[in-house]
Automatic annotation (TrEMBL):
Family that this chain belongs to: Belongs to the class-II aminoacyl-tRNA synthetase family. Phe-tRNA synthetase alpha subunit type 2 subfamily.
Keywords: Aminoacyl-tRNA synthetase, ATP-binding, Cytoplasm, Ligase, Magnesium, Metal-binding, Nucleotide-binding, Protein biosynthesis
EC number: 6.1.1.20
Keyword Cell wall biogenesis/degradation: no
Compartments where located: Cytoplasm
GO biological process: phenylalanyl-tRNA aminoacylation
Protein name (database record): phenylalanine--tRNA ligase
Gene Ontology CC annotation, any one: cytoplasm
NCBIfam families: pheS, PRK04172.1
Domain of life from the UniProt record: Eukaryota
Length: 427
């Protein structure tokens, strides 16, 4: 039955009943439709103005579970066990092969319908104790199924509930009465005043739906964290759990001194060309440096020192002054280590950073001019390669990556160097 038809039937019932109301549950039963269909008709009529008034009511009712419906049809487990026993009895091992035997045997024993002869030949044997039984469980469930739950006392209903044969559910219904604008004819109310209505004057004969200023509007779709930010947050949390302190990385513009020279990257290296690095035009040069440290860096580049023979070239401060968009966050690490060296007494530290860096790349589907770099620095006495491997292993374990392999590798800027490999069984 269509919703419009249900709505018309509802209005007709109200018209025929005078000042009386209509219960939505009773109407659903009378029309032979689902109760939800009547509820839909009530809500539709409510949207048309003051045609009807609807009061929501709640009531409790008992419903059979799927197991309860099965018992109402075929009998209780204990009754079916009783009826399955022949006069000469049945081996307990044979009885227990039945799906309902476990519960049925226990209940039938409690009701003293059956007995067990443990000394019987071939093993324990089950016999009937009485000639006939009354399946009260089935009868009570059939009463509830027919809507006569009031004929079953509360104790029995609670017992059936414990056996998960019935459930007490809350049923919401509507008591519907005539509204101030009651009419048996359904006229759809207009929601918009159009230019055509104004031009023709037809708006005068139209009924318009009233505005509900208390209604909540459609919630706007909220923003979502970018997947990269989610990963970044996860990595940051792992570093903090491992006792690292985050370095300040809010300076995207860096001098070539801290980005290259302080890391002992030669000034003639191709990475310092414009086709690899973004150089600034304004301001083009940095002017403030720790001069004593700058002189030490210059000497190592041009002459060597601290076990290094240097690059043997004339180091230019003009090249070191050039401002760039940092090509790695290691420039921040260089600053932090310099700052650490200025302390009167050395104290071990663990630093990390996660932030953007910039390269003058050719843009394509897999390359951008910027990406994120994750970096960690540990400064202490007596550190070995084993300490580094332990830190890396712990970091990856916290990510859920446990299958790790470390392989020696060559890197012109670090010695010793290695690569880390991992695999995942589901990959």
């Amino acid at each position: 039955m269509a919703d419009n038809s249900v709505s018309e039937q509802l209005l007709q019932r109200l018209q025929d009943g005078g000042s009386k109301g209509v219960d939505s549950l009773e109407l659903a039963a009378l029309l032979g439709v689902e109760h939800q269909q009547v509820v839909g008709a009530v809500k539709s009529l409510q949207c048309l103005g003051q045609i009807i008034e609807a009061e929501q009511r709640s009531s409790k009712k008992w419903e059979l579970s799927s197991e309860g419906e099965e018992i109402a049809r075929e009998g209780s487990h204990e009754a079916r066990v009783f009826h399955s026993l022949p006069k000469e009895g049945l081996l307990q091992s044979e009885l227990m092969k039945q799906p309902i035997a476990k519960v049925g045997f226990s209940k039938a024993m409690s009701n003293k319908w059956i007995r067990v002869d443990k000394a019987a030949e071939g093993g324990p044997r089950i016999y009937r104790v009485v000639d006939s039984i009354e399946d009260a469980v089935k009868e009570k469930l059939q009463l509830i199924l027919k809507g006569k739950a009031d004929d079953v006392n509360e104790k029995d209903k609670n017992e059936l509930k414990k056996r998960k044969l019935v459930n007490e559910v809350t049923v919401k219904s509507y008591w519907v009465t005539k509204g101030s604008g009651f009419s048996t004819s359904i006229t759809k109310q207009e929601t918009d005043l159009t230019p055509e209505m104004i031009a023709s004057g037809s708006w005068r004969e139209k009924q318009f739906k009233g505005y509900n200023f208390n209604a909540l509007g459609v919630m706007p779709e909220c923003g979502h964290l970018h997947p990269l930010l989610k990963v970044r947050t996860q990595f940051r949390q792992i570093f903090l759990e491992m006792g690292f302190t985050e370095m300040p990385t809010n300076n995207f513009i860096e001098s070539s001194f801290w980005n290259f020279d302080a890391l002992f990257q030669p000034q003639q290296h191709p990475a310092r060309d414009q086709h690899d690095t973004f150089f600034l035009q304004d301001p083009a040069l940095a002017t403030e440096f720790p001069m004593e440290y700058l002189e030490k860096v210059k000497k190592v580049h041009s002459e060597g020192g601290y076990g290094s023979q240097g690059y043997k070239y004339d180091w230019s401060i003009h090249e070191a002054q050039k401002n760039i968009l940092r090509t790695h966050t290691t420039a921040v690490s260089a600053r932090m280590l310099y700052k650490l060296a200025q302390q009167k007494e050395f104290s071990p530290v663990k630093y990390f950073s996660i932030d953007r860096v910039f390269r003058n790349e050719t843009l394509d589907a897999t390359h951008l001019a910027e990406f994120h770099q994750i970096e960690g620095v540990v400064a202490d006495r007596g550190l070995t390669l084993g300490n580094l491997m332990g830190v890396l292993k712990e970091f990856f374990h916290k990510l859920g990556i446990t299958k790790l392999r470390f392989k020696p590798a060559y890197n012109p800027y670090t010695e010793p160097s290695m690569e880390v490999f991992s695999y995942h069984e589901g990959g």
